[in-house]
Each structure stands twice: as structure tokens, then as C-alpha cells.
Design a protein that fits this description.
- The chain contains 17 helices and 22 strands.
- By secondary structure, it is of the alpha+beta class.
- The strands form 2 sheets. The chain has a 20-stranded antiparallel β-sheet, with helices on both faces. A two-stranded antiparallel ribbon has the order 11-19.
- A hairpin with a 2-residue loop joins strand 15 and strand 16.
- The chain starts with a helix and ends with a helix.
Amino acid sequence: MRFYRSFILAATLLAASSGLVSQATRAQEVQKPIAIVSISPLERLLPDITYLLKSANVPEVSGFFGLFANQYTQGIDKTKPLGVIVNLDNQMPSGLICLPISDRDQFFGALGTMGVEPDDLGDGLFEIDVNGQLIYAKDANGWLYVAQTEAILATVPADPAALLGDLPKKYNFAVRVNVQALPDDMRDMATEQIRIGFERTLAEQGEQTEEEQELAREMGEAQIAQIEQLMAETEQVIFGWAIDSKEQKTYMDGAAQFLAGSKLAEQCDALKSLASDYTAFKLPGASAYFRATSRIDDENDKKVMKQNLANSMKQLEKQIEDGNVGDDSKELTLGLLSKVKELMEKTIDEGTFDGAGSVSVADNSLKFLVGGRIADGRMLEQELKKLVAGLPSGPTTPRAEFDYETYEGVTLHRLSVPVKIADPGARKVFGDELKFVIGTADKALMISLAPNGDAAIKSAIKSMTSATGKTANPIEGVVELTQILKFAQAVSPNSILDIAATSIEKAAGKDKIQVLGSIIPRGQIFRLTIEEGVLRATGAAVTAGNQRAGF
């Protein structure tokens, strides 16, 4: 959990650092490039993009792309990767484009068809006027190096492919940012700018009480401390995108790796032994499933999480107080909310988070199941009993049957909530009331919504008890789009949904969107995978929507 929050903060800080380069006050020798952009060899890239465009139901774009690519990549060695190397030149970022060349004259001839005529300066150096902007190119070692100034071309790498490493093999497009290559004063200045922005925001919150301002200040300081730690301990950040036509999917990776011996590296390495009790807690044939497991030991991280929780609870309390709810019910609800906040704070203090959720819409019947570890399930059970017992009786009052059975150590409760739904499609799914089964244990809370009573939650609990403490990745999830499209079409028929559903069936089961967070040495990687059927359905729906709109 910390990694993904930290990853976003790191990306934000890197962007801030780029904007502050011109404000730096002293030069610093940088051994590594601050960033590298990698593009896979064209013999692989061009067919992959063609496949992706055809899968997305835009064959006309695919054909145009093929003609354009073949015309303007003449003379490029299609067996080698392309790259951009970003360094600091007098504290300003400068990019060096590296193109593998098989025939320079042929490549320049292709540029000539666009009205671009390189001027030969001798010794393999060329000046190129692109719409009034002068750039320079150097032909050496089988590569054409392109930069904004001649000075940048004075020293070029003998083999750019070596700098790109394994990125071209793993991804079609990738960016590696070497965080430690950023000068110290630049990183310090970026952090200071963030602090200034925080102070400005704090000063603008004039309606806050002194207590609220102090809490906001503590939270801001904790977040800035996280940013400072990230900048000090992050070695590299990688973003990559790959198209896998053989496996009929595309995926995007985001990864962060920390310095050896750093606290963040040790925390990530400790997660190799991460275990979950909820790997088997799911509905059979679920249309969507998600599980997350993490361990938080850092006290500063816990402080930030508690402050975020307090802010969220405060907003909920305001909505309840401003809502159209009777005073008695309002008081009971606010009391429960206070206990939930207390329970969540205890869970944060314990530092272990583990849970899973799944949804099934098979046979056009909605089932929902969620469960997770909490600090004190019995306390929450008692608070729910107090809430239901204190509610005024009436046609919309929930009906509850507490402690009706204990199954595999989990106490089960039934809760029926009357609902009034005007939409016919939604009423067809939910009926006149929502029937929940709630399971509570010493360290667990589980909730099921299913038309077949408690069978779903009992099955999940049974599976869960046989897989307790199983080694697991921090995050995993999957959505199977075919079931969801068919369910949506059954509830609310729509011609565009029908086209999308028909299109996805042609992908022979390749209909999933998957997320996976896993551990790498001294870091973590997050992958989003989209299978071909999803691309087909999306492209078909967009095309149908455009045709309906007259485009």
C-alpha cells in the first residue's frame, strides 16, 4: 500500500523537479543520464502497433499507419532499438535522440518528402531546419544522433543500445528515470517548492479551527517527510508499455526500485514473505475480483493514514448532519461512525491490512462478497446491534437477525434493508429489499449480498479456512468484461452494448482487465493488463457511438 502512494508522490516530485531546473543555482556533474526513453526495434514495434489498431476496430487507421511508417522509417535499421538520452546541460535538461541507421541517404531522402533538407556541415555533422527551428545531427558508429545544439553532439555514446539495457526487449515504449542523477540542490528546491505550496494552502484555510489547522499542518509535514525520504532513497522509476500480439494483450508497468540498504528497500524486501488469509475468499466464477494485502510498520505512514481517515470521517459526519435524517437516527449513525473511526485507527496501529472482494453477475443475478481483517470484529458487531435496536420502527427500517449461526468460527447475521427504486431495470436486479449476510469474527468482517441466502458467504469462508496464511502478492485483481456486458444488456438493453458484447465474444475468452502488484529486488512493480477482447469491445462501442452521433 505504501508503494503505490509513494509511487504517485515520486512521479509528482519528478515532474516538479523538471520545472525547477532553470532555477538551480549551481552546476553538478552527473554521471548517469537523468532519464532514458526506449523504443523497441521497428521490426517488432510496427507489427505490434498494427495488431493493436486492428484489435481496437480501427483497421482504416491501421492501414494509414502502415503506409506512413514504411515511408518515413526508410533507412532506419529496424533490428535495433531507438532511444532518447536525457542529461543535464548547464542545469537544463537536454535530449539526445539515437536512431540506428542502415542507409543515411535513404533516411534523409524520406525527410526530403516532408520538405526537410539536412545541410551537410562536414565530418558527419548536419544542420536541419525544421519549421524555423535549427537542430543538429551526427552520423557515427552506425547511429544518427540528433540534438538541439552542436555542443551536445561533441560527445556521444558509442553504443546507445547498451544504455537502453533490457528495456527494448521488455517493452515497446519505456522511460527510466534515474532519480539519484538529479542534483541534490534541485531535489531540495523541489521539496521546498512543495513546502511553500503547502504553507500557502494552509494559510488560505481561514475557516478552520486552530485544532484543525494543527492537524492539517501535522499531515502536511508527514507527507513532506515521505517525499524527502523518497527522493533520498529511490534509485530509479520505470514506466513501460508492451504490446503482445502472440498472447493477444497489451500491458503497462510502473515500477520503483530503491537504493540498496535504504529503509524503503528493506521494507519492500520484507514483503517477499507477505501472506494473506483471503486468497480464496471469492465468489465462484466472479465477474470481478480484487484482493489487497500490505504491512505498514513506519509510524509516519500510520500517522498520514490516520489523518486521511479523520478527514474522510469529518466529511461523512457533515453529510449526515446536513442530511434529511431524524435526530434519533442521526445520533445513532454518528455514534456508529465514531466507533468505526476508532476501529479503523486500531487497525492502522496494528499495521496489517488484508482483504478481498468479488462480484458475480452470472445468469443475470447480482452477487456481492467482501471481507477483510479488522482490529476488533466483535466491537463492530456490538455497535451494529446498538444501531439497529435504536432505530425507530417503520416501513423503511432495516430488519436484522443477529447471531443466527456460527460457521467455521464466524458469527453470521442477517440484515434486510427495504429500498424504493423507480428504475425498472434496477428494480429487476435488487427487488424491493437488499438482503445481506454479515459475518463477524475476532479479527474479521465479511459482507455478502446474494439471492441464495448465506450459501455464498459460507462457501467463501470454507475455502478461506483451507488457504489461511498463503503467500501472496500485495495486489491482484481481474474484471471479466463479457459477463458484465451481458448483464448490463439484460438490465438495460442498448444497441451499443449489444455491439460491444458481440464483438468481445469473437476474442475467444480474451476478455479480461487485470491488475497485479508484485515484489522485485529492492522495490515493487505494478502491472495493468488489457486483453484483446476488451480492445475489440471498446473500439466497437466507440465506433457505434460515433456513427450514432453522426461523426
